[in-house]
Amino acid sequence: MDNIAGHKSSLTWAVHISVVLLVALWLFPTVGLFVSSFRTADQIASSGWWNAMFPTEQSLTLRTADPDAQVQQGGIYVIEGNLFAVEGREPAPVSTFGISSRDVSAFQPGDTAELRGGGAITIQANGDYRLESAEEITGSRGTRVFVSAEIPPEFTLRNYDTVLGQDVVQRLLMFVGAGLVLWGVARFVLSAQPPVVALGLPVVAGLALVVALAVGFGLSSGAAEGAQTTDDMGRAFLSTLTVTIPATIIPIVVAAFAAYALAWMDFPGRALLIAFVVGLLVVPLQLALIPLLKLHLSFGIGKGYLGVWLAHTGFGLPLAVYLLRNYMVGLPRDIIENARVDGATEFQIFTKIILPLSFPALASFAIFQFLWTWNDLLVAKVFLIDASGQTTVMTNQIVELLGTRGGNWEILATAAFVSIAVPLVVFFAMQRYLVRGLLAGSVK
Amino acid sequence: MHPALQGLLTIVIGVGACLSYFWASNQFLDRVLFPAKGPNAGRNINRANMIRPWLFLFPALFALSLYLAYPVFETIRLSLTDRVTQPDGTTVYHFVGLGNYIQMSGDPKFWEALWNNMLWLIVVPAMSTAFGLLAAQLTDRISWGNLAKSLIFMPMAISFVGAAVIWKLIYDARPPDAAQIGVLNAIYVSLTGNDPQQWLTVPFWNNFLLMVVLVWIQTGFAMVILSAALRGIPEETIEAAIVDGANPFQIFFKIKVPQIMPTIMVVWTTITLVVLKIFDIVFAMTNGQWGTQVLANYMFNQLFVTRDWGVGSASAMVIMLLVTPILVWNVRQARKEMR
């Protein structure tokens, strides 16, 4: 056995290293998006995101001060100042500079460059410049110079301002922080109360405070400078939420009753109905698009929220019934028989015993349905989004951005991350239930 | 009214209507139709209990039939007809027999989509299951395995569209003299010194670049399920193998894998179903250009771009046909369990 034990320890190292590699490989793409959403367009274009932690060599186009600023010094006209002060940029060490876009690194810091329009400019490594001219300097704007500078790593929330509206992230963080504080205090104060109050009330209070603050102070202080209306993810975020929540809750209610009947009531044809549900589990929803669209149009529902809620409910039901029935069948028979003997009606048994006991299964289906409806593109495109452009969801908004802003990675990455953030939070908070649901649905 | 408010109202009305339907119909059954008192109390209770399951089932059955069962038959019908708009603006459906299928089989894009779908069907389930099995086996043996699992599982929460953006950044190409910001080109340029490639336009191989996205998402799913199956293997079989001098690789391939074969099949078929319906990734990344068409995207194009409902329905039927074996197998498995 000795050699086996020895073998094992060297193998353990190999296992650790391979898992680290595997995890790194799987995380790498998402981290790239996350990091990119905090970089400026210049930074994204000039270096890969994996270099974000290091200073980058960037080419900047800057201007000297306006000719108004010129002063006369001993017969010549002079403008002096710092290039980085002009547009309020962070100072950075200049490595080369040029005066023509064809050769942007013609000169070293400290050199003097002859300008084509007459005069000469000297630029120092710290960005200080001195523009001299024998004639009076004319024109409405300052002289353009091209500078290569080492820009230190810098992260910005500007992209989020563009995509969501000015200051949204900061305010949201503040409001959620306040909500969390209230939640903590309420948990502490109410800790002696029964569990429903002690756990439930703090959550409700915290959420109510966040909503109240958001409504009271407003989430955004207006559109950010330079944002295009098509970049707006805030509205798409709200409509995704509007699609998702009813589409998650309604199928649960409908399916729970059906699952109870299929699990604990005896009637002819039960086995056949279960087979029916299992069969519908795999029917591709592509088949349903045209017939249902026809149906919705003929009923006058048309394209809109009602249609997309109904469609998501219908498509989510097979999995809901299947998961919940499988779970309910496993509940102990004694409890239900005893309740029946004690004179409880089926309705009471269902609401007072089965529903509370089935919480884990309800939670796992709720997560599935939430992720599926939040991430869906096809159903929304067919049943919700019409030609008017009034309704949209985030996935559709991103696809459109891929068309209109294909090269603007700062906008794309931020928009995508906004849409990914909520599912990720749900995923990490409720992973236990998700795994349980997967196992109940697949391993038989 | 603001849509968010409308949504809230719908939840309240929808859930309220559901609950009151269940409550009221039960009350009606027990109090009015078959009251459990009077001369026929016993008979009434039995009758009420015969009807009650159908009260519980009705909303779900109705929605299932209308939203999933009826469309199957309606799609079959539509795939055999042509939609014609008459001069007076009304639409009629002409029966054309197999005309739509014949028209579709003459379309090279359809064959491209079918061929690509077959490639997806082979590559994605195989790769996802293999990586999932590897990750499950490795993470089960280490102390921080659960953290590793949850990080590998994470892409599952990301939408196909989000994943498309993430991977487009990886495949991004910049002009040869600029810094490469896509990882793939950055590595490619620094290793070979060639000019950067527009990876998504490279015929044939771009299909695999799209598949990578789905493998990345589905591996976590495979890993979670296979890891549970691996833990369910009886210890004695492994101990016996160790005593007999099997090395770790033999234990894995000859003892563990055969015992979890049924679960591997389940994972494989589940991922197969996802692959057959794959739409968002292709739609967002290439929209079927450069030889990357797949069936679901072909169908979407027929329905909403070409507006040919006949051929669109016919291609939907092709997807249904490919799903049918799995449907039959699933139903038979479920019936076997019921007995």
TrEMBL record, chain A:
Pfam families attached to this UniProt entry: BPD_transp_1
Annotated ranges, domain ABC transmembrane type-1: 237-430
InterPro entries: MetI-like, MetI-like_sf
One annotated GO biological process: transmembrane transport
Chief place of localization: membrane
TM helices/strands, residue ranges: 13-35, 172-190, 196-219, 240-265, 271-293, 305-324, 353-371, 411-430
Gene Ontology cellular-component terms listed: plasma membrane
Membrane topology listed for this record: Multi-pass membrane protein
Top-level taxon: Bacteria
The entry's keywords: Cell membrane, Membrane, Transmembrane, Transmembrane helix, Transport
Compartmental location: Cell membrane
Family matches, as Gene3D superfamilies: MetI-like (1.10.3720.10)
Entry's family note: Belongs to the binding-protein-dependent transport system permease family.
Protein name: Maltose ABC transporter membrane protein/trehalose ABC transporter membrane protein/sucrose ABC transporter membrane protein
Lineage, highest ranks first: Bacteria, Pseudomonadati, Pseudomonadota, Alphaproteobacteria, Rhodobacterales
Automatic annotation (TrEMBL), chain B:
UniProt-recorded name of the protein: Maltose ABC transporter membrane protein/trehalose ABC transporter membrane protein/sucrose ABC transporter membrane protein
Organism name: Antarctobacter heliothermus
Coiled coil residues, start to end: none
Coarse class of the protein's main subcellular location: membrane
Taxonomic superkingdom: Bacteria
Domain ABC transmembrane type-1 intervals: 114-330
Family statement: Belongs to the binding-protein-dependent transport system permease family.
Membrane-crossing residue ranges in chain numbering: 6-24, 54-73, 118-139, 151-170, 208-230, 264-285, 309-331
Keyword Cell membrane attached: yes
Membrane topology annotation: Multi-pass membrane protein
Protein localization: Cell membrane
Keywords from the named record: Cell membrane, Membrane, Transmembrane, Transmembrane helix, Transport
BP term (GO), one: transmembrane transport
GO cellular component: plasma membrane
